[in-house]
Amino acid sequence: MEKIEAIISYAQENLAEESTGHDFAHAQRTAHLAKKIIEEDGLDVERFIVIASAYLHDVIDDKVAKSPVKAQKDLQYFLQEVGCSVQEIGAIFDIIQNLSFLSEMFLSAKPLSIEGKIVQDADRLDALGAGGILRAAYFSGVYGQTIYDKNQPPQNFHTKEEYRQPTTMINHFYEKLFLLPEMMNTEYGKKEGARQKAFMQEFLEEFYKEWQI
Fold first, then answer.
1. pLDDT value at residue 132
2. Assign residue 139 a region: left if phi > 0, alpha if psi is -120 to 50, beta otherwise?
3. I need a labelling partner for 130 at 20 to 30 A (CA). Which of 69, 122, 152, 179 fits?
């Protein structure tokens, strides 16, 4: 089995029970979007690093893994076993440990390589648009968050602890999702992110018309 096929199988197995919208289907879409960014922007990059990182980026995340430390050790051992070089493993971990919104905003994330920036944009694009709306609703439902509360305005967070406090599904648009287009690294990411944000803003206009409580 080729390395990338083994990595895809590993991601599928480790994300099989994921129920917050960070499942294997999300990993697949992230990989697809990463390829789209490479093609649309004509980027010359290490495609293996990009695709591997896209599939693996949530495997060690604390929203998904019961023990992130163990998940990191398991992943490193797996990558060694399938024949990844020390350099490839390092490049993949540099990406998946530093691409998250939380890491960039609150944890002094390590600067990403061009491959990392592509995966970061792909991950963020999947959080926007029609799919992003559904994923936000799905995530909020799993964590028991209310849809909307006019007496609970969106917050500006300054720490990881503040960011992880319960919010509403609609507040999540303002507290995170609408910030993503301006944080994109690639030309395709910026263009597509702006288009998806506009669609989400139209959705909210309709939502506020209907939500008469």
1. 97
2. alpha
3. 152
Domains and CATH numbers, the chain: 3-210 (1.10.3210.50)
Cβ-count burial 178-196 (b if 16+ within 10 Å, e if not): bebbeebbbebbeebbeeb
Could you tell me if residue 79 is left (phi over 0), alpha (psi between -120 and 50 degrees) or otherwise beta? Answer: alpha
Residue 32: which of 134, 129, 114, 126 has the closest Cα? 126
User: Do 177 and 198 contact (CB within 8 A), yes or no?
Assistant: no
pLDDT at 107: 80
Q: Please tell me the predicted confidence (pLDDT) of residue 163.
A: 80
Q: Could you write out the DSSP letters of every residue in 69-94?
A: HHHHHHHHHHHHHTT--HHHHHHHHH
User: Do 10 and 46 contact (CB within 8 A), yes or no?
Assistant: no
Q: What is the pLDDT of residues 41-60, one digit of tens each?
A: 999 999 999 999 999 999 99
Q: What is the pLDDT of residue 156?
A: 87
- CA 119 from chain centre, in angstroms, equals 9
pLDDT at 177: 97
**pTM of the entire structure?**
0.95
- Residues in the chain with pLDDT values less than 70: 1
Please answer whether residues 142 and 17 qualify as being in contact, where contact means their C-beta atoms are separated by less than 8 angstroms: no
Query: Which residues, including other chains, have CB under 8 Å from residue 26's CB and lie 6 or more apart?
Result: 15, 58, 126, 135
